């Protein structure tokens, strides 16, 4: 395992941040505990706008949306992803690792995604 870690090249790439992050509303994909206990409180403190939420458990998404005054609860992942084709949004992906790749493939080419969970169940998968 240590050999695997040492074979990963280091990057000096520092991504540029948006000039005004308030111009990039957030769409949450996933409405679990990490979203309600971590992400949404942090976004509220920072003043970041949350535009919408989607979860495979629609009732959970409706409940979280209502509690946090999220303006849009999407019916499908396709509906949520289609939003990015018309405006700059940040997708906050808080889903199990086995769902991340398929969601990323659905996002439009210029979408921004914040992946909040590991990309795999272990280092080799990631």
Q: List low-pLDDT spans.
A: none
Tell how many strands the DSSP assignment holds: 5
The helicity comes to: 25-40%
Distance between the termini: 13 Å
CATH topology: Rossmann fold
Give the spatial strand order of the biggest sheet: 3-2-1-4-5
Please give the CATH class. Answer: Alpha Beta
CATH architecture: 3-Layer(aba) Sandwich
Rounded average pLDDT? 83
Helix tally equals: 5
Transmembrane segments: 22-43
Protein name: Gfo/Idh/MocA-like oxidoreductase N-terminal domain-containing protein
Keywords: Membrane, Transmembrane, Transmembrane helix
Question: How would you describe this structure to a colleague?
Answer:
The protein has 5 helices and 5 strands, in the order αβαβαβαβαβ. It has a single domain (25-115), classed as NAD(P)-binding Rossmann-like Domain (Rossmann fold, 3-Layer(aba) Sandwich). It has helices at 2-6, 33-46, 58-67, 77-82, 97-106; strands spanning 26-29, 50-54, 72-73, 90-93, 112-115. The radius of gyration is 16 Å and the shape is globular. β1, α2 (33-46) and β2 (50-54) form a beta-alpha-beta unit. By secondary structure, the protein is α/β, with parallel strands linked by helices. It has a 5-stranded parallel β-sheet, sandwiched between helices.
Summary of the model, kept short:
Helix content is 36%, strand content 15%.
């Amino acid at each position: 395992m240590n050999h695997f870690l040492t074979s990963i090249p280091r990057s000096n790439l520092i991504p540029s941040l948006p000039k005004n992050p308030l111009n990039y509303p957030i769409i949450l994909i996933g409405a679990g505990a990490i979203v309600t206990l971590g992400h949404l409180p942090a976004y509220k403190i920072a003043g970041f706008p949350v535009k919408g939420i989607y979860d495979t458990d629609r009732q959970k998404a409706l409940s979280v949306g209502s509690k946090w005054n999220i303006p849009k609860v999407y019916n499908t992942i396709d509906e949520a992803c289609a939003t990015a084709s018309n405006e700059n949004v940040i997708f906050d992906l808080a889903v199990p690792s086995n769902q991340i790749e398929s969601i990323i493939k659905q996002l439009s080419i210029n979408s921004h995604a914040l992946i909040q969970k590991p990309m795999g169940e272990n280092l080799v998968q990631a």
